[in-house]
Amino acid sequence: MEFFEIAGGNRLKGTVEISGAKNAALPIMAACILVDGETVLHNVPDLADVRQMQVLLQRLGVKSERDAGGAMHLRVDDEMNCHAEYEIVSKMRASVCVMGPLLAKRRRAQVSMPGGCAIGDRPINLHVDGLRAFGADAELINGDVLLRAKKLKGTDIFLGGPFGSSVTATANIMMAAVLAEGRTLIESAACEPEVTDLANFLNACGARITGQGTPQVIVEGVTSLKGAEHRIISDRIETGTFLIAAAITNGDLDLPGGRIEHLRAVVDRLRQIGVIVERGEKGISVSSARRLEPVEITTQPYPGFPTDLQAQAMALLSLADGNSIITEKVFPDRFLHVGELSRMGALLRKEGPTVIIQGTKKLVGAPVMASDLRASAALILAGLVAKGTTRVHRAYHIDRGYERIEAKLAAVGASIRRLSE
Ligand code: UD1
Asked: Where are the domains of the chain?
């Protein structure tokens, strides 16, 4: 198995090009199930999860390939299979995004229940209840949800859950609604930029969606969608991770492609910590003051502070000059990194969904274990500044969602290598 070895202490300086957003690319690829003819997607990041989605789509009869310039071409050539099996869904939870498109286009979707994962329970009740509201029947067989409908009828759907809106449930319902008969109103829709990007892609294919980016999305059903060309938005979580990388190493980075308007809550917190974040010529520029102020952070659905940057923020705040508090309001059990950061000298105390972080002067290198994608990024960030050598085991977690992270970090001065056990 591969791991990252990091020698801490280098200041990061230079330019890091931000890649396309994983969480926009995956549902947009799944949306191609709905589309007649060829779709061309630009700026699709080269990630393990993207390749996994290509494998799933291949089994569902959607051909996809990259051209010499890196653009991805997708086209449906067989509509027989409607089954997303456990073997794939258990590896990548975003596989659930095929549910809405399969049901809408092929009138049948059989998708394995994803089960729990390292960041906690991850139910799909909102997806299934939302799709049933269009008139579909749902039953559970062998751990799969089987949905069937003769036709889908537009309706009003309230999508709020116990922790607010759901990103992929909104994607699924929106994708089903585009081919449903009549008008659908999605109330308490997720406002994440990745959902907006999906709506913009669907509209480019001929869908009639308005209100994307707000909690109230309206979809007027159409009878078919035609292939289109679309550029995936940049990855705000990768951007945020590099903002924190600059902050934690007292560095100075330019992040072309990064979009401040997608990261306002993060930029607000970083500025309060003492980090200088500005709109650069082509993206964002960031430099760090030597002293990090403690802050309070609460994760929330967009436009709040993203849960996908919670672990990275914890690594940063463990070096602040005072006590900080992080409260997780999206996935209250998403704290497996607490134990690993503590092994590096972070002073952390967990109380339910809250962690109190007592700032310390230094972190020390250690062998640590990645548990999920964003927790791995937090451990790498801690390793960049820790005294001595850090080994982050289970590199495959990071490969799911960060494109060439070690190459991007090494190019701006980090001492990081990928090695095999
Ligand atoms: C997406 C992102 C993930 C991010 C998360 C929250 C993708 C591919 N993944 O995941 O990176 O961490 O948003 O920003 O875009 N919930 C229910 N019932 C449901 C669905 C969700 O109760 O049917 C709850 C979840 O347990 C969680 C909250 O709603 O507490 C938000 O989850 P959700 O937005 O659905 O996350 P994902 O779409 O799975």
From this structure: 2-19+235-420, 22-231
